[in-house]
Amino acid sequence: MVFLPRQEPFTCEHCGADVVPLEHGTCRNHCPRCLWSKHVDEHGPGDRAATCGGLMRPAGADFRGPKGWMIVHQCDTCGKIITNKCAPDDNQAKFAQLHP
What we know:
The protein is mostly beta strands. The chain has one helix at residues 92-96; strands spanning 10-11, 18-19, 37-38, 55-63, 69-75, 81-85.
């Protein structure tokens, strides 16, 4: 799996927020306001090879040692599950709802 870093602004298709790239750290792949994502990557982060294009709901949270907290996203169209690293400016109230 190859990581293709992409720093691209986007408009969230779930809540309509205008999302800007992160200044430092990992590449942003979900909306910091509602935590939703879009199924655009298939084989690895940044490949943009997915043909599904479905919205990915934040379905849970997982702590992965050195990577820290991850958001578990599940595609509402095809069911694929992908984990994404939390961003420093993610909505903490929304994130707290993902884990007990």
